[in-house]
Amino acid sequence: MKKSRVIQLLGLILIGVALGFGYTHRSQTNAGESITAVGSTALQPLVEAAGEQYSANHTGIFINVQGGGSGTGLSQIQSGAVAIGNSDIFAEEQAGIQASKLKDHRVAVVGIAPIVNAKAGVTNLTQQQLIKIFTGKITNWREVGGKNVPIVLINRAQGSGTRKTFESYALNGHKSAESQEQDSSGLARSIVSSTPGAISYVAFSYLDKSVTTVTMNGVRPTEANVRNNRWKIWSYEHLYTSKNPNQLTKNFINYVLSTAVQKKLVTQLGYISVHAMQVERSATGKITTVK
Amino acid sequence: MDKIRASLLKKSVASKIERRGKIISLSCLALIILVVFLIFYFVASRGLATFFQNHINLWSFLSGIQWNPGTLGTNGQPAVGALPMIVGSFLITICSALLATPFAIGTAVFMTEISPRRGARILRPVTELLVGIPSVVYGFIGLQVVVPFVRNTFGGSGYGILSGTFVLFVMILPTVTSMSADALNAVPRYYREASLALGATRWQTIYKVVLRAAIPGMLTAVVFGMARAFGEALAVQMVIGNATLLPHNLVSPASTLTSILTMGIGNTVMGSLQNNALWSLAMILLLMSLFFNLVIRYIGRKGKLNNER
Amino acid sequence: MNAKRADKLATGILYAVAALVVIILVALLGYILVQGVPEISWHFLTSPALAFEAGGGIGIQLFNSFYLLILALVISLPISLGAGIYLNEYASKNTITGLIRTTIEILSSLPSVVVGLFGYLFFVVQFKLGFSILSGAFALTVFNLPILTRSIEEALANIPDSQREAGYALGLSRWETVTKIVVPAALPSIITGVVLSAGRIFGEAAALIYTAGQSAPALDFSNWNPFDISSPLSPLRPAETLAVHIWKINSEGIMPDAKAVSAGASAVLIIAVLLFNFLARWLGKRLYKHLTAE
Fold it and tell me: For this UniProt entry, which residues form the secretion signal (chain A) (predicted)?
């Protein structure tokens, strides 16, 4: 009893000393310099990869990237809890956000394409057909030249950036009918690939052989077509900061916008570089040509 | 004399330890209670904002069938009708519990009464292992195996209450089984001995004595299973289809409170109506699990054969 | 039908039910293992994950899972042990105790999503812990407390009163009886409870997505100082666990080998839970021997 008490006490003292030693000898460089970016899961891989490279080049600086969704990102940056809020949509489009208090940095462009199950038997749809399909007026692929298979709509979650973009630019602002919803691109793709007659939409980086990519009005969803706005379904990826971000945040955003990142990382991850765009689009959807 | 007097009147070391022990254990309990109240407070403060700040009618929230908080519904108020999700959650929970209970209790009886050796050797480790499988994995197996199976056997797109029920059935089976087995094990041995001595067969002993004595414990097991089914998010979300429509049948896409909650929470901004409405869903989840607990408690008290241990 | 026939029939049915359940469960495990085990290699277990190229591993996520599990257990075990002792040994049977029990049951039936969101609001935002292991461990504690408390309480309740009476007869106080006699005797079932809850913690994703975060920054495995942010022991770094990683690559992963990684990670998860089970059982047996037969 007595002996075990002594051993316990010694153990506690030892742990205490070890912790104290650790605290006084912690490397000071790693302690302070870090920024946190929170938000869109679609943008997360890019910021994460850029952050890793940035840390590798600047010893002791730590870029902490988290998902959580565009809404989380915007509300966190609005409350000042983080340095950067990642978003798929313009702050102006998000309810509950005062966009005038935030600064927008567009770091990449993402194209979105409709995908259908291979059994539907269609490879092209006109925009009118697409609208009718998503508003529930057309319910069988036969009606648009496909096989006799009922259409299964797979939407993205309400409020998701991809869905907002798709409804604005593919459905011309029509709200899609109540249907199945999924909250991630990967899941939407795997459901479309396994469900006969399913249709959904994903970012270009998720297009693969398991699903049929549909052309709209004969235009193919390619990077070249997005650049000149012939393919209209695309959106910006935003890094939002406060009006006066600190130096480290500024440096990091400049790094993301640098040619090194835009040329390599952005394209590797399946986004389109903002530098490559021949047009610019405002929050209200106004298109201007970039010289 | 005074010394003896003092030492007799002084609190003994043991009673000091006793006091300290009681305080420590009580404060642990108090901490848990505090956590519960904090959760209630947080969820309620957000969830009630829908009704007090955004002035949504409670009844139209509970009975409405349109869910699209960003837009206005047919009655001119924001479309926040939670009925489809409430119905979906209830249906899926009840169906999976109905399906799982006979299997779980049968297996538990087997484990404890028929072949305890095999039960301990095979069934117990397997069930305990299954508890550790993340729900995501269940969801993906559901997507790859259950959904096509339902589509080919029962028609429809395969997404819906039925697929969710099957996935949840497998998910809650281990929990309900092992907890039922615990309840059966807790039935004193002399109950069985008395019954067997009266000439009852093994089945009669199980059915007339052991099962009855274990009813409260098994009900608790079922509640735990139902609670898990009710609160399960990621797995259900993958197979139920997440359509905020009232389900017409068991194979039409539906949604549950949790699936809409997880899908939407990242896309909304704290303090906005869209976000508050989701917290209201969380509050319903909370209240419904409270309700479940109370009901089962009531049944458990009624069904108890005897109280003394 | 006479009683004997009924007995035979019921036994047969019970055999069938048990067999069916075993088949379902084993098929499920087999499915995961068959798909996943071929993906497992030393490289897969130790190298960090890659975001968009093939060939990434799960090393950091695996470490994070274990670290988070240990932290969560370290926090929740003493609390639930205390609460379990109070409920079973001290609390009198009245309405208030019943109410407390109901409260704990409500906590246990709380959806893990709600726990995660609460953890996000409370630990991440309110306490400014950020997305960190500590926030995750607290959220897991909230999630784990009721289950553990309940199983400990049950384990204690199953110890016959004769043991307690023996303690009192020797002149021990109630607290001493509990800590020296009842708890050691109940240890094997307490361990089982811990193992069960550890399994749940290990596979939990929904409660961690918004608390421990979804990113696993590179760690410096030569630096074991808990106050350095790149140290594996640092409790304030974000930590994606294995279960969260599986969720993430399945929903948003763009690496070409996402399916293989997810299958492999699931298999690793199950094997880890299995190993953990064996270890805990072995430890439980040894402790039991040590504490009771000395």
Answer: none
